[in-house]
Amino acid sequence: MSATVLYMSMSLDGFIAGPNQGPGNGLGDAGHRLHDWILGGAPTEHSGVPGRPSGANGTMMDELMATGAVVAGRGTFEPAGGWEGDHHDGVPIFILSRRPEAEEAQWPLMTYVSDVEEAMAAAKEAAGEKEVLVHGAGTAQLALAAGVLDELQIHLVPVLLGEGRRLFEHLGADHIELEPTRIVEGAGVTHLRYRVLS
Amino acid sequence: MSATVLYMSMSLDGFIAGPNQGPGNGLGDAGHRLHDWILGGAPTEHSGVPGRPSGANGTMMDELMATGAVVAGRGTFEPAGGWEGDHHDGVPIFILSRRPEAEEAQWPLMTYVSDVEEAMAAAKEAAGEKEVLVHGAGTAQLALAAGVLDELQIHLVPVLLGEGRRLFEHLGADHIELEPTRIVEGAGVTHLRYRVLS
Known about the structure:
Number of helices of chain A: 4
Number of domains of chain A: 1
Oligomer: homodimer
Number of strands of chain A: 11
Strand order of the largest sheet of chain A: 5-4-3-6-1-7-11-10
Shape of chain A: globular
Structural class of chain A: alpha/beta
Order of helices and strands of chain A: EEHEHEEHEHEEEEE
Radius of gyration of chain A: 16 Å
Strand content of chain A: 25-35%
C-alpha cells in the first residue's frame, strides 16, 4: 500500500526557505543553503551539474527519486518552472490549486486538483506500491490538517536561517503525535523520518 | 574551559511551550508533553516523584545535572518558582533581568544580571571546568545574537504542538551555522547536539 511522504529540507529553526520567497526566488534569499547537502555531489564530467551525493545523502535522494507520484502546491511547482513537466521518471504529478480548470492539461503528466484529500487519494492510486512524494509547506499543512499525510522525511540542516518561510504553521493547538522511525546522519544534514500517528 | 550550552526540549515544529504560557502555566497549555521523556522514569519507591529516566535519556539528564552554573531568564525562572533557590547541587544561578537591583540577593545562590554577555562570562567563571546550563527561549535568543552561546543540546520531541512559544525567533536574517556533534536516540526523544560556529 502506498504512503504519502513529505520530503522537505528544513533548518533547525524550522524554515524551508529564506525571506522574500517568490517567482525567480523559490528558496528565498540565501535559502539555497538548505540544499547544500543535495549539491554536495561532485559535478558530473560533462554537464557541470552536481552528481548524486555520496553516502547516506545519496541513498535519501534515491528514495525520493523512487517515488511513484508527486503532490505539490503551486508555491512549489511554479518557482521550480513546473520541473519542465517531468519531476522524475515521468511519474504523475498532482498540483493543488484553487482554480484548477483554467490550467488543466498544461503539461501531460500533470493534474490540477483543488482538494488535498482528493489529490492524495489520486496520487496513491497512481503510485501503486510506491510512495507518494509530497512537497511544499502549504501542501504539508493542508495534508496534516486533513489527516492525509502518512509520513515525514525531514532533512534537518544544521543552520539557523533566522527568517523565511516556516514548514509548520497554522496547524492549530491540537497536537499531532509522531513516531520516529529512522534517523540517518548524512554529511551536513540529519535525516529524520516519522510516521504521523494522529 | 567551560562552554555555555543551551538545554531545551523542543517539538519538531519548534515550540518549547504550548500557548498561554505564564505564571502557573510555565510550559503553556499541554506543553508538559515536551517533558514526557524526562518523566519516563519509574516513580521512586517512597516519594512518587519520577526517578531518573533509563538509558540515553538518563545520560542526558546526568549531563544536565553535571553543569557547574545556570543562566536563565525571568520567563524560565519565575514559572519554575525559582527552583526554590537551588536548581541543582547548589551551583550558582545567573538570572537575566532588566531590573536587577531590586531583586538582588533574594536567594543566596542567585545573581541578577542585566547583560547577557556579562551573565555568560560570570557563569563560565563560576562553572570552572564544567559546562554552563543555559535555559529559556529569550535567553537563547539574546545569547545567540550576542555570539555568547557555544553549544545547543536540543531534545527533539516527536510531536507537532501547533501553537505556543517558539525557541528560535527574532534572530534576523543572518544565518547562524551549526556543526552537529552528536545525535542520540532516546525513548520518545532525539537528542541533537550542535556547536555554534558563527
